[in-house]
Amino acid sequence: MKNRVFMYLFIFTALVVVFQFVNSKNIIEDYDKKLTTYMEDNVQLKDSIQVMSDNQVEDIYTFRFDTNEDAMVYWENKGFRISEFVPFIEDELINLNVYDTEDHPLVPYASMTGEKMRIDQIRMLNHKWIITSFTDGTYWGEMLLEYTIEDRQNLTFRVIESTLYPR
After folding, report:
1. Residue 130's closest CA among 148, 142, 105, 147?
2. Each residue of 132-142: pLDDT tens digit?
3. Given this model, what pLDDT does residue 45 score?
4. In whole angstroms, what is the distance from residue 30 CA to residue 56 CA?
5. Residue 163 host element (H or E)
6. 142 membership: H or E segment, kind and range
7. H-helix or E-strand containing 69?
8. What is the rounded CA–CA span in Å between residue 122 and residue 97?
9. Does pLDDT of 127 surpass 70?
């Protein structure tokens, strides 16, 4: 009788072990299948991100002074150091935000909120043009400016075109 109990326990234990083994194997295979699918999807997504990044990087460097060799050479030939030239132009534009009159010296639109119009973003396009954005906190717009420097000191800006976005 004792031998039969041990035999039944052994058979029951063997069946439980086989069941656990088969169940664990199925679970591991399922996880492996999911992991493989996720890894394939990840590779596809990385490829699409790389394609998007390449296009965006190309767009970022289009119409920029610091990637336009001809524009930089133009000012270097006039005796300017580019590393000092760009901050000088940007500082001069930002300094125009400090004004005592009611209207901004460059922005062709008056503020409609009582706040002063201010230039907030600047992008130098080449050796002649700058695009800027301006805002009074509620309304905003953009301007295309022409800049000239005479006698290495006299910096002038002229608004070529501007737009104010509707609210």
Report:
1. 147
2. 999 998 999 99
3. 80
4. 38
5. strand 154-164
6. strand 140-150
7. helix 69-77
8. 13
9. yes
Torsion over CA: 22, 27, 31, 36 (sign): positive
Cα–Cα distance for residue pair 23/29, rounded to 1 Å: 10
Number of Cβ atoms within 10 Å of the Cβ of 122: 16
Name the nearest CA neighbour of 64 among 82, 84, 51, 40. Answer: 82
Amino acid at residue number 76: E
Residue 30 corresponds to which amino acid?
Answer: D
pLDDT of residue 48: 75
Partner residues linked to 143 by β-bridges: 132, 162
DSSP 148-162: EEETTTEEEEEEEEE
| Least confident window among 47-51, 70-74, 82-86 | 47-51
* Number of helical (H) and strand (E) elements in the chain, helices listed first: 3, 4
The backbone torsions φ and ψ at residue 140, rounded to the nearest 5 degrees and listed phi first, read -145, 165
How far is 51 from 57, CA to CA, in rounded Å?
A: 10
Tokens of 71: 């524009």
Residue 54 confidence (pLDDT): 64
Whether the CB-CB separation of 86 and 66 falls below 8 Å is answered with: yes
Structure tokens at 38: 């996720």
With tokens 């052994």, the residue in question is: 10
